[in-house]
Design a protein that fits this description.
By secondary structure, the protein is mostly loops. The protein is 13% helix and 8% strand. It has one domain. A hairpin with a 2-residue loop joins strand 1 and strand 2. The chain is globular, with a radius of gyration of 13 Å. The N and C termini lie far apart (30 Å).
Length: 79
């Protein structure tokens, strides 16, 4: 894959696929643990609060390859 440093898919992971709605071959595991989690409500993802804890189970934002640049730009602004 072109730009392989921006994408990898680990089909051997015990949790793969950890989110529904992204097809095999398009599921980016690079941001397995979302780097935007720490941003709370400002992360821009589809999260829910469960007993006071942020749950990202319904969020696919970091797993879509096309979002790589956008996520990195958000992280650079937060430094």
């Amino acid at each position: 894959m072109k730009n392989s440093e921006r994408f990898f898919e680990n089909r051997e992971c015990g949790y793969y696929p950890c989110h529904e709605g992204i097809g095999e071959g398009s599921f980016n595991c690079l941001f397995c643990y979302c780097p935007l989690y720490f941003m709370g409500e400002e992360c821009g993802g589809d999260y829910v609060m469960k007993r006071g804890v942020k749950s990202c189970i319904n969020c696919t934002r970091p797993h879509i390859p096309e979002n790589f640049e956008e996520i990195n730009s958000v992280l650079k602004k937060k430094r």
